[in-house]
Each structure stands twice: as C-alpha cells, then as structure tokens.
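User: My advisor, Dr. K., asked me to get a structural model of this assembly before our group meeting. I'm new to this, so sorry if the format is off. These are the inputs:
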Amino acid sequence: MFEVNVDALISIFTTVNFFELGLFLAMGTAIGISVGAIPGLSPALAIALALPIVLWLPIHEGLALLVGTYKGGTFGGSITAICFATPGTSASAATVADGYALTRKNQGGKALKTSLYASVVGDSTSDLALIFIAIPLGALAPLLGPPQLTALFFLALTIIIIFSADDPARGIISAGTGFLLGAVGRDVHTGVIRLDFGLYGLHSGVSLVALLLGLFSIPELIFQLNKLWKQRRQDYKEPTLDAQEGMKQKLTLREFLATWRGLVVGTTTGTLVGALPGPGATLAAFVGYGLTRQFSRKPEEYGKGSLEGIAAAESANNATCGATLIPLLTFGIPGSLIAGLFGAALMMKGIPPGPRVIVDYPETIYLLFLIFLLGNPIALVLGRILIPVFTRLAYVPAIVMWPIIGVFVVTGTYGFEIREFDVLILLFAGALGFAFRLMRIPFGPLVLAFLVGPLFEESLRRSLTIARGNYFYFIESPVSLGLWIACAAAIALFLYGRIRMRRRGIKEEQILD
Amino acid sequence: MSERIHSEVIGSIIIVVFGTFFFWWTYHEDLPGGAAIVPRIAAGAIICGGGSILFRALRGRTAVRIVVSRHELLMALVLLSSLGVYAFLMLWLGLAVAIFIFLMGWWLVLFNRMRGSHAPWMTPLALAGIAGGMSAFCYSLFILLLDMYLPNTALF
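Assistant: The format is fine. Below is the predicted structure of the whole assembly, which you can bring to the meeting.
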C-alpha cells in the first residue's frame, strides 16, 4: 500500500476550482457519450482529438476533459448497441445480444438504464480499486512472464469457447476464425507477411473497428432491411424501430438489484482484465459476460434479453476505465491505447508516467484519482439526461433509420484510420457475420480470439524461444501451473454440466436449439 | 435426409473446405516454422469444428435449425454491393453527394415497396430533405469537425 500524502491533498483542495473541474468533466462526458454512440467513432479518437486542447488548458481541466470523454465514451457505445444492435464502440459489442433482444421485446428503456447504472457501478469500483487495491497489486505484474501469460490467455479462450457457445463445435469454429484473422499481417517475431493473399492492404492486419462493425452491424442491417422488404403494404403495421413504448420502460430497484451477479462478476473481471497490459475493455466485457453466464441461475436467458447479461458486460467494460491506468502509473507501461493517450497527456505537461510518478507528482496523481471519482456521479446524471435524447433515434421510422446506420458504419470505418481497404474488410466481415448468423455460430469467441490471438502467440513463441522448445517450461512455475489447472477445471465443469443435463433427460437438441 | 439436416451438411462442408484451404495456404506461403504455428492451429480448429458438425449431421443428430432464405441471400448481396458503391462514390464524388445518393436510393426503393403505408409526413420530398440534412450533418462532423481526409473528389 502507498502512504497518503496529506500535504498534497490539502494543496489540491485549496488550489483547484472544483466548479470548473466539474464543468470540464461534464463537457467531456457529454462529448464522450455523443461520440461513443456513433458507430465507428471510439472514445480513443475523441481523446486523441482533445489532446491538443489539453496542451493549453490547466492540467486539472485538461485531465477532467479527457477523463469525462473516456468515461462517457465507454458508456455511450452501449446506447446504439441496445437500440440498433450496432455497438458504438467495440467494448459494447458484448451488450448487443441481450440489449437488442430487450429492445425487440419493448423493454429498451430497462436495458439502457441497467447499462448506465452497471457502467457507473463498474466504473466507481474500478476507480476505488485503482486507488486502494490495484496499485499494490500492479507491482505483481512483472511476475507474469511469457509462460504465465500463455496460460492466462489460454484460460481466457477456454472460458469464452465453452461458455459463450451453446455448441462447443460452433465455439471452436468461431475462435479458430478469430485466431486466423488475428494472425493476418506481419508476424511479430520474424517480420514475414502471412495470410495476405497478395493484398497489400492486409500487410498491417485486419482492422478491429472494421471487423466488429462488419460482424455486428451489417448482418443486422441485412435482416432488418429484408424484414422491411417483406413487410408489404397489407401487413405493414408500425413504421417505427420496434420500441417506441419500450424506451419509456422504467427499471425498478428490485430488478436492478437482481442483476447483482452480473455486477459483481463483471466489475471484478473488468478490474482484473483492465489492470493487465493488452487485453482492454472489449475483452473484459466478453470475459465478464461469459463468466457471469456460468454462475447465473438463468443462463438460458442469456442472449435473449437478460438484464444480468447487460449488467455483466457493461460493468466489466467500464470497470477497465480506472484499472487500465495501473500499468501506466506503476511501471510506465501503457496497457491500452487509452492509457497511452493519458500517458501522452501527462508527458505533454512534463510529468513522466512511471514507478516514481506517485512519489514525485503526488498532487497531479491524487487529482487524477479525484477526477476519476467525481466523473462517476456526473456520468450518471448526464447519462440519465442524454439517454432520452439518443433514444429519440428509435422514434425515427425504420426505413429512414437503417440506411443512415449503413452510412455511419461505412464512413466511421473509413474515417477511423483513413484506409480505403478497411471498407473492404468491413464488407468481408459483414458477409462473414451474415454466414455466422445463418449457421448460428456465436461471435464472442471470434472477437476474443482475435484480440487475444496475437498476445497468446507472442507469449507462446517467446516462451518456446526461452525454453528452446521444451514444453515443460509452461508448467514449471506455480502460477502457470495453477492457470493450466484452472483451464482443466473449466473444461471439466462444462462437461459435468452436460452430463448432468443428459442424466436429467434433456436431449442435446433441446439444449442447443 | 431432411431439409434441415441438408443445410447443416452443406454449411459444415463449406466450413471444412475453408479450414482445409487455409491449412494448405500456410504451406503454400512457405512460412518459417514459428510463424505458421498459430495459423495452423486456427485452421485445424475450424476443420475440427466443421467436421464435428458434419459428423453429427450425418448421424441425424443436427444441433440447431438452419434456415437459409433466398430473400436474405439476395438482400445480403444487394446491401453489401450498395455499401461498396457508397464507399466508391464517397472516395470519387465526395462524402455529401455519396450520402445523398445512397440514402435516397434506399429510401425511394423501400418507400415504393411500402407505398401507402407510411406516416403522412413521409413524402419523397421530405425524404430528400432528410437526406440533404444528413449529408450536411455528416459533412460537418467528419470533414469539418473531425478533419477526416478524403482524396480530391469531383464534388463535395
């Protein structure tokens, strides 16, 4: 544990104008929610655009703007995920299945409020973890060498395959495809280009934004436009996007409290995953969702409109907000793109992030912690105000709305990295997503394998290089041995569940269909 | 063999063929040993998964209902093509013009398909107004505010 520097705290409370701080936080949150709600525009893009402004703002106002944008953007992605099955950010992709299922059941309002409250719960807990628990834990990060990381990533993949897919065969296909797409481009060790099929655009790999937007949005666009096409004059009833009344649905305290499993598992997962360099909010959301489903009393409701599922995914992705700064503030390692941008902002102000930053610049770091904590009530209030504004989009007739979403998907994909080839990847991913939807293959393992694949490969090959091909190296340390045992336990738990279901007389077809 | 199992068999065969193609491709590319590990594991996983579904389908134990509609396949082709055309127009004609053409194209087709069952305000002129508004909004957002780069285009 670090000791609290009381002088630094007194200095903050006597010199900082908290009203101005709140205004910049609110401004950042509003910008973040708006940007996050537009498919293809990530909070990272908004933060990157805000960096030049931070340079001429006083440090506390600049940090407030960045933190607000980050928190708002992480939540904002769930609005379009729930209303239109189009994740505004990749981190909200795990929310699509349950959120959109509720919108279709005219309960979109409940889904949005659960998402907001779960985001604030996850975010607040993560911020407290950053301050009181995670920084000392972050000191353990160097203990995770390549063999331990290999086991850790394998565990994450095992969990997502066996628990996110009703049919493990389909989960394996999905994960294999994700691995394959993640391997496209330059090999990290040898530098050779692989799986490029002679296309120059694939040399830098498959764009995550194009892949996610293609997988999640385009199949939905196809099915919705096809539905509209089939609804001819005689059976055309309601020219709105499913859920006018549903958006007004209130969430009761009891309903929200009933999602406690999702909140606990999601927040814990998000904080732990967020503290690791690399994985990020998207991975946290999918792992949190998959794990909560395992512990849930109603796993059959997942993917069909489970509030618990939404709470798990949203609390997990927002719980990475505070935790993602742990590697940055303890070792100077930006564990994610966002952490890198925060590191850049601190360096622009002459504060080098690293092991000594809390000791050398306690006022700035304590102020950053305070801003993170203050950002949560502001996100809650602004979220409540802005949800109805954004859900007004749901009142727009469907024939007007879906083509507009098509425009945002293509333009956002191109605009993210200004690469024409990304549009082709988007269309390919759309076709792949459509085929997966027809074959009832889940997207979760694909996304997770795509994210974890390169990290897994790097640690696997580094371990093999260190051990000179000796595979026993992977189980030599107690930490990695424990992680491999956890993998085996997860598989055994899954098989046990299946055997128990069969003993009860539930046929495979009933489980899966 | 029922139609349901038939779809499952065809789908799984396609998956196995894809997996096998990628597995073969890792040899065709002549990758150094280490660089080929993960692609081969991935292709192997796809083959195993597809093979498992195929095996079950052939034994008549199909797991999920796969319904392939010709309308959906056609809509997928039309939508993917129209998105491709939109991207092409965006890069060659300009963002605002491309958005206007894309939106009006889709709206007029759907509008005519569902003629007579729209809200009273929804006329082709109103749709053109919304398309113009959306073009202006997207142009302001992406080009003016976010400074998104587009190559020199014929229009704007």
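One thing worth pointing out at the meeting: Chain A touches chain B through 74 residues (CB under 8 Å).

User: Perfect, thanks a lot.
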